[in-house]
Amino acid sequence: MNRASSGIKGVLDNMRTQLSILDEEIKADEESKMEYDRQLATLNIRKADLQKRLEKNEEWVKGFDKDVGPVTKKYNEMTTEINAIYEHAKNGHKRGVKVLEREFGYHPAFKRPQDTFSATPFRPK
Question: What global pTM score does this model have?
Answer without folding.
Answer: 0.44
